UniProtKB/TrEMBL annotation:
It comes from Sphingomonas adhaesiva. CDD domains: metallo-hydrolase-like_MBL-fold. GO terms for molecular function: hydrolase activity. This is MBL fold metallo-hydrolase. Keywords: Hydrolase.
Length: 287
């Protein structure tokens, strides 16, 4: 596992993949957003990050005089896609990947806000590919963190660029209404059926035992689900009261994210007929 480089310093992860960290560290982005440059003779840029001049210059230095085949976007959050516009202007490359998505949210955001100006030249769906000399990136639909989230497989080396669906430092924020726990769990199950050698996430170190991690993430989410059902089996509760019981010692800056995650679980459980809302409180539904 490669150690993190400082922001702006390129790190070669394998001959076809170079990583450059953006200078946007936060409680929700860890050390920052990781942009991946794929290719040798010509390249694709995956998730160019925020609209940050220093990060843009770092990417242009790594690209040098090489042609850029595509600027590839996993999803439309402001820490992933805004840098695409300056790169497109500088290189002439098309912006491809996740579909644009407009949303009126129903509560406070617990992660980076949407990029309202994201406008891809080509929307990619499951199985769509973009390719260059000696490399191919194939879209894998992985909704959950956002409705439009895509991962990208590099079959030449059995690598997967997992965006924010699977990260190397934390579980993903799933914040309704754009985040969907039902979709997120299904997308994790989908990845277990693949034979990827390594994941390169949008945040945190690369993941060299991906199936083991994904199974652990599924188990973690099912444990959270079990906690919710046990708490509501005792008495109806509002979400803040559940978070206080479920997340002892949580960094107060992450309390909002935990509330959104619990809400996502409750919506999933409601669809399955296991819980119901009574005003601000939730209750278990008798079998």
């Amino acid at each position: 596992m490669a150690k993190d480089s400082p922001a702006g310093v390129p790190m070669t992860l394998e001959p076809l993949v170079t990583r450059v960290l953006a200078p946007n560290a936060s409680p929700y982005t860890y050390t920052g957003t990781q942009t991946h440059i794929v290719g040798i003779d010509d390249v694709a840029i995956i998730d160019p990050g925020p609209a940050d001049a220093a990060h843009h210059e770092a990417l242009m230095t790594v690209i040098a005089a090489r042609p850029v085949v595509a600027i590839v976007i996993t999803h439309h959050h402001r820490d992933h896609s805004p840098g695409a516009r300056a790169l497109k202007e500088a290189t002439g490359a098309p912006i491809v990947g996740a579909a644009p998505f407009a949303l009126s949210d129903d509560g406070p955001r617990a992660d980076d806000a949407f990029d309202p100006d994201y406008a891809p030249d080509r929307v990619m769906a499951e199985g769509d590919s973009v390719s260059g000399t000696g490399w191919t990136l194939t879209a894998i639909a992985t909704p959950g963190h956002t409705k439009n989230h895509l991962a990208f497989a590099l079959p030449e080396t059995r690598a997967l660029f997992s965006g924010d669906h699977v990260m190397g430092w934390s579980t993903s924020v799933v914040s309704p209404p754009d985040g969907d726990m039902t979709d997120y769990m299904a997308s994790l199950e989908k990845l277990i059926g693949r034979d990827d050698r390594v994941y390169y996430p949008g945040h945190g170190p690369e993941i060299d035992r991906p199936e083991r991690l994904v199974r652990g993430m599924l188990g973690h989410r099912k444990q959270r689900e079990g906690q919710i059902l046990r708490l509501l089996g005792e008495a109806p509760r509002a979400i803040p009261a559940m978070v206080e019981r479920m997340y002892a010692g949580l960094d107060p800056r992450l309390f909002g994210a935990a509330e959104r995650s619990v809400l996502a679980h409750l919506i999933d459980l409601e669809r399955r007929g296991l819980v119901a809302a009574d005003g601000e409180a939730w209750r278990a539904v008798a079998a």
